[in-house]
Amino acid sequence: MYVSGLQLTDFRSWAEIDLELGRGPTALIGANGQGKTNLVEAIGYTATLASHRVAADAPMVRSGADRAVIRTRVERGGRQTLVELELNPGKANRARINRSPVPRAREVVGLLRTVLFAPEDLSLVRGDPSERRRFLDDLLVARAPRMAGVRADYERVLKQRNALLKTAFLAKRSGGGDMRTLDVWDAHLAQSGAELLAARLELVEAMAPHVESAYKEISNGQGETGLAYKCSLGDAMPDSSDREVLGAALLSELARVRPQEVERGVSLVGPHRDELVLTLSSAGTPLPVKGYASHGESWSVALALRLASYTLLRDDAPGTDGEPVLILDDVFAELDVGRRQRLAELVQGAEQVLVTAAVPDDVPEALVGGRYDVHDGTVTRVR
Amino acid sequence: MYEGAVQDLIDELGRLPGVGPKSAQRIAFHLLAADPVDVRRLVSALTEVKEKVRFCRICGNVSEQDDCRVCRDPRRDLTVICVVEEPKDVVAIEKTREFRGRYHVLGGAISPIEGVGPDDLRVRELMIRLQDGGVTELILATDPNLEGEATATYLARLVKPMGLRVTRLASGLPVGGDLEYADEVTLGRAFEGRRQVDV
Hints:
The complex is a heterodimer of chains A (383) and B (199). Chain A is built from nine helices and 15 strands. Chain A is an alpha/beta fold. Helices cover 44% and strands 11% of the residues of chain B.
C-alpha cells in the first residue's frame, strides 16, 4: 500500500496543504522548524490514531484553530481509500472513510499501516522498560487488532487490583482489611496476563531473527545484537508458552508474593513488570545495550527493532497490499556514512518510503526518488 | 452566569447524570416557559419518588411497599434467583418475559477503584436468602464488563459450598445484527462460547 495524497487543514504549523505523493522513495527536505515532521506525523496518526511525538491531540491543532483535519488517500491493491480524520481536542474525534462517517474513529485503524522511525525511538533502547513493553504491545495490536482488547482488559484488571492492594495496605495498618476479593482479581489478572504474555513471547520469538539480521546489515557485521524476554515470573517461568500453563504459573506466583504485595500495595507479578532485554556483543561478550552501547550503536539497535517490525508486518500479508509505508523521520543525521548507505539499501525495496531531512546531503542518493522542498509553509516538488 | 434562581436551577440540573451545561440551560428555560401546572406536577413527582419509594426487603429492587411487585407475585418460581447489579436490570430482564424466578439486586459491582467491595453490595442479604435451601439455581446476570465478571466470579466462589447450580448469562452476538458489525472482543467471545447445532 502507499499514500498517494495528503491534505491537511490546521494541523500543527500547516494551515492548509495539499500534497501528492508517489510510490517508491520520497524525500522531504527543509531547514529546522519548517514542518517536515508534521507532514509525516499526520500520516502516522492516520495509521494508529496516535502521534509519535505527543500523547494528547491538542498540540496537533494549529494554535488559534478549533480543530485539525487530516485527509489521507491510501492506494491498496489498485483501490483508493480516502481516510478523513477530524481532531477535536477535548471532544470525540470524527472519522470518515470514503466520505461516509464511521461511528467510531477507531474504525480507521488498520486501513493504513506505517512503520515510523524517528529520533524519539532512541528511548526504545535507552528509556524505561515501559517503552519497550509499549513497543511490543503496539506491534501486537498492529498485527492482530483483537489484542487491543486484551491489552485494555489487562490494564483495567491491574488498576483494580492495585486499588484493592492499596486499600488493603491502609486497612491493615488500622487493623482488619478486606482481602476476600483478592482471589478474584488474581484469577482475572492471571487470565488476561497469560494471554498478553503468550502473545509477547510469540512475538519476540518471531522478531528476534529479524532484529539480529537487520542490525548485522546496518552495522556491517560489527557486533551482534540479541533480544530476550525477561519475565517477572523469574525462575517460576514455565518452558511452555501455552496460555493455560502461563496462567497457572502466574496464579501460583501471585499466591507466593502476596505478603510482599500487601506490604507494598502494588502488583509485583505480571506482564506489566516484564522487560525486553536488548544486548550487544562484540567479540562474543553480550552486554546490555542500555548503559554500554554508544550513541550510534544504540540508534542502530532502535533502527533494527523498527526494521524487524516492518518485516513482520510486511510478511503477515501476502503481496504488496499489506506492506506498510515506511517513514524515516530525521534518522540519517545520526548515522555514519556507511550505516546510512546500508540502511538505504535495506529499505529501498519498500513500496513507499518517506524520508525527512534538514540537509539534502544526509539522504543517501538511493532514497531521493521524488524530492520536495519544505519551506515557509509551502511544499515544492523539486524532482 | 444568570441571576440567582435561574442559575441555581441550571447548576442543580447540571449535576444529573447525562446532563451537560448546555442541556441544563435548555431544560431550565423550558421549565421557565412551561405552564405552572406542568411544573407543579414535576415537583410532586420528584417529592413523591423520595417519600414513597423504598427498596424491597427481599430483593432490594425499588418498590412502593415493603416487598416489590415481583417478590409479592405468588406465581413466581421460588427456586431460582437472578442476581443483577441495578434495579434497571430487573426491568430489562422483565421485558423478556422469559424469566419466572425472583431477583436479587446487588446495588452495583465490585470495583476497588471506586471503593466498592462486597460489604457495600447486598451480598450478605443474598447469602441469607440462599441459606434456607429453597433455592436450587442462581443466575449471575451482572454486566459483561470486567467489574461485572469479577463480581460474578466472587459470588460463584462464595456460594460454591452450598452446592446449588450457578449459571452465568451468555456473551455473544446480538440477535438480528450483522456479523460484520460486531467488534473483535464480542466476536471472539462468541467463538469461545459457540455450541453444537442439534439436528
